[in-house]
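pasting input
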Amino acid sequence: MSDTGNHVAAAGDTGRATHGEPVPGRSSRRRLTVVSGPSGVGKSSVVSELRRLDPDIYFSVSVTTRAPRPGEVDGAHYHFIDRAMFDKMVAAGELLEHAEFAGNCYGTPREPVERALAEGRQAVLEIELQGARQVRAAMPEARLVMLMPPSWEELVGRLTGRGTEEEAAVKARLAEAERELAAAGEFDVRVVNADVRTAAGQLLDLMNTDFESIREHHE
Ligand SMILES: Nc1ncnc2c1ncn2[C@@H]1O[C@H](COP(=O)(O)OP(=O)(O)OP(=O)(O)O)[C@@H](O)[C@H]1O
Ligand SMILES: Nc1nc2c(ncn2[C@@H]2O[C@H](COP(=O)(O)O)[C@@H](O)[C@H]2O)c(=O)[nH]1
């Protein structure tokens, strides 16, 4: 996918998305949390623990052109789609954000997230850096959290230890990881994932805190 630009409607409280759907107001967009971080840092592990801690949170299920890993369930871990369908969704404005990462395309279906926010629920997106930047541009009220590894060596150990990628794919993901870690300062908060339960607890605390005050504190 060559075009990884911003396709998110940057409308105000009473604005409408590019395709006519209502967009969430400013206060509901504060309930949107983006969890980002380098491949292998433990985003899925921490988000899965967060789901256990608070089942009321809405967790976005992304679309991807990546092949399923053993044990991954279509509709639960991802919606696995082909490139033609992905391009169609982009063209129709059905993705809140989208990006190409290490040779595959990923995107967040817009409608379920907007519905969850409109219902007053917290919503969590687990996405990479380009997508996080698109959300930041379109929804400045969303909270952006970067999950950090305790060390580079630990990150490499986790990614290779997971054993889900060939050597070339691991290399591509580590190259992305360097870029992602260099952008850590763009995020509202950085949480070190030394321990999954601790990191998930910290994330939940952040989600339940008045984020504007945290932001001011960090600026
Ligand atoms: N705190 C931790 N301590 C030790 N191992 C961990 C920790 N968190 C996650 N792991 C392990 O690291 C590996 C990568 O975790 P996970 O798949 O959750 O990462 P991810 O950030 O979602 O990766 P990707 O972006 O590639 O999908 C897994 O094998 C997981 O069990
Ligand atoms: N921009 C987006 N990034 C996404 C989305 N769903 C997942 N991701 C991120 O992609 C990488 C690779 O994921 P993997 O499952 O192949 O290991 C990782 O950083 C995910 O967080 C999305 O919808 N948009």
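fyi Residues 122 and 195 are 23 Å apart (CA to CA).
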